[in-house]
Design the sequence.
């Protein structure tokens, strides 16, 4: 039924872009139109990404040559296991966030502008994931970043503007480092196609310049991924954005612009070296521990969640840096799980803010009695992030820790366990002060959030509960294993892409 | 050689400006300086000694042409830089409306 064709790949960029265009063009005329366009677009991309998983299972790596120019001349877009995995993660979160926004964004002035920027950001992220061209990657990176600066500032109040400015300045400097890295790569390899670059590296060897490029890329993409020395913008920017956007930023933006690109460049193009792997391990462990320590003391619910994003990203990088099949599997699985439970937690915080108007944990209390759905889903998400069985977060953390022990990295395994315990402690605090304590009188009359917000929260909570299913034989083979295999194959990427085109 | 060093100096000046200056507008100018330095460097990478403009015509033979690809890429990078700068300036204007200052040491309500 599904035609074997790579023509599906550009749709991941084209559909959200078309949605954004339509929205800015005619969204103002009818009040409900932006909602419909936003949701239909994200749904369409979600369906496409599920189809892409199927295509990858059946036909292996697919390559689309933009404008009919065959690689290495033209811009190539590559669909392989890792791409399909990331596309599903991103678009799944994007769809539920769009559903949530139907009710939530009522309190802001312009839904049309919101959905336009949202779809632009989605197009940028999908582009980063699907592209096989270095400069094209930079362009999509900037599309997603610029849209996210505007979305962080969406409320245009004091704090939002301050956070957005800080985020924009730091992220722009990061992008410039990335661009400088791409310039140096181009000067060394005389090509921009990632597969061709990998081939040149295989022939010419990785010279001294690769060291410089690696440093620039780790700085640039590390800043986008908010690894610890580069994390200063995240705790301001993520809480200041409207809740659905916080969910997008923490859930998928830092992963697709940061982690995915780091993996792709270091594993598939340059080829991972022990030095880079140990930098990954070190930065991962550092983010994991520092993030969770900073999180424990927070009383602002969204700020606490933002610090936990730094910590959980540390787990992903740690797993991927281990470089063993099990470690990479655990890292990628944790990436998927973190997208699900962190976006759910941010949506929960949005629901609380929607009903009570506060994000301060000390002012909340007993909200689960008045908001049962939010309370229950928040419980599921908190247990997932803290790594309690049988929720999804448990399985991925377990795999990462087992992989660390197997690789003989006992120290890192210890830090991973410690960070997990501290995470549990800080979410105990959220549950106790926010949801389970005695109901304060002032919250006696608040109401549960509207239907669409409940719908998306419940759906994400179900994914959190049944996320462990992804590890079962058949499903694992088509989804996670394929993504892991891409990273394990390393620089054979070049040969596979050239065969596919 | 000296041109490359001057580009490096320009880039460092931009970083210095971003790191040290307190004025929001000067920060934005610093970012723009960095951007121009990277763009200039990209053009320099494409330059060949005594090369000619990469214009193809049937009667001229193609010898010693500068690399035309980075020029196209730099155009794109400039447009992206324009979008970023415009957005930054827009945010800076709004910040001035709310805080009545451009001094970043006074725009510090988020901490912790």
Sequence:
């Amino acid at each position: 039924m599904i035609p074997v064709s790579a023509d599906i790949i550009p749709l991941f960029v084209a559909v959200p872009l078309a949605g954004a265009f339509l929205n800015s063009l005619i969204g103002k005329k009818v009040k409900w139109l932006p909602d419909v366009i936003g949701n239909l677009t994200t749904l369409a991309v979600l369906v496409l990404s599920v189809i892409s998983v199927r295509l990858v299972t059946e036909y292996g790596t697919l390559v689309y040559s933009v404008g009919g120019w065959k690689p290495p001349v033209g811009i190539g877009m590559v669909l392989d296991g890792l791409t399909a995995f990331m596309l599903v993660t991103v678009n799944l979160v994007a769809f539920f966030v769009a559903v949530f926004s139907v009710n939530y964004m009522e309190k802001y002035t312009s839904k049309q502008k919101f959905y336009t920027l949202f779809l632009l950001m989605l197009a940028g992220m999908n582009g980063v994931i699907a592209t096989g061209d270095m400069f094209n990657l930079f362009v999509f990176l900037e599309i997603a970043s610029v849209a996210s600066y505007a979305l962080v500032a969406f409320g245009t109040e004091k704090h939002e503007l301050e956070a957005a400015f800080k985020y924009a300045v730091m992220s722009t400097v990061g992008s410039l480092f990335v661009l400088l890295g791409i310039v140096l790569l181009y000067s060394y390899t005389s090509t921009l196609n990632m597969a061709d670059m990998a081939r040149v590296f295989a022939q010419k060897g990785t010279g001294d310049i690769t060291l410089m490029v690696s440093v620039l890329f780790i700085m640039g993409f590390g800043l986008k991924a908010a690894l610890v020395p580069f994390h200063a913008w995240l705790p301001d920017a993520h809480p200041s954005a409207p809740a659905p956007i916080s969910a997008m930023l923490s859930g998928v933006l830092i992963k697709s612009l940061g982690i995915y690109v780091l993996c792709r460049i270091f594993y598939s193009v340059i080829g991972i070296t022990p030095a880079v792997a140990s930098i990954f391990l070190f930065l991962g462990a550092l983010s994991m521990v520092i993030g969770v320590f900073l999180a424990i003391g927070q009383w602002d619910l969204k700020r606490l969640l933002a610090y936990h994003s730094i910590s959980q990203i540390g787990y992903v990088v740690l797993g991927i840096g281990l470089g063993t099949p099990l470690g990479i599997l655990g890292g990628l699985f944790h990436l998927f799980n973190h997208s699900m439970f962190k976006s759910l937690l941010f949506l929960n915080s949005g629901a609380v803010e929607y009903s009570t108007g506060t994000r301060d944990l000390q002012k909340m209390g007993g909200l689960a009695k008045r908001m049962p759905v939010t309370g229950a889903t928040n419980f599921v998400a908190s247990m997932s992030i803290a790594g309690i069985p049988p929720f999804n977060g448990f399985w991925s953390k377990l795999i990462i820790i087992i992989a660390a022990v197997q690789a003989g990295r006992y120290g890192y395994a210890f830090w991973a366990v410690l960070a997990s315990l501290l995470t549990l402690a800080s979410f105990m605090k959220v549950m106790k002060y926010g949801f389970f304590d005695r109901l304060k009188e002032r919250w006696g009359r608040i109401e549960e959030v509207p239907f669409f917000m409940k719908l998306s929260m419940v759906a994400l909570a179900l994914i959190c509960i049944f996320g462990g299913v992804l590890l079962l034989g058949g499903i694992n083979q088509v989804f996670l294993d394929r993504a892991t295999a891409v990273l394990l194959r390393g620089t054979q990427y070049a040969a596979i892409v050239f065969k596919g085109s | 050689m000296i041109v490359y060093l001057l580009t490096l100096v320009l880039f460092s000046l931009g970083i210095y400006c971003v790191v040290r200056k307190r004025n929001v507008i000067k920060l934005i100018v610093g970012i723009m300086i960095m951007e121009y330095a990277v763009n200039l460097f990209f053009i320099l990478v494409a330059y060949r000694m005594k090369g000619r403009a990469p214009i193809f015509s049937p009667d001229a033979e193609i010898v010693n042409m500068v690399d035309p690809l980075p020029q196209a890429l730099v155009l794109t990078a400039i447009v992206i830089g324009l979008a970023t700068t415009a957005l930054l300036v827009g945010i800076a204007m709004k910040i001035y409306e709310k805080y009545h200052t451009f001094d970043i040491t006074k725009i510090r309500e988020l901490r912790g």
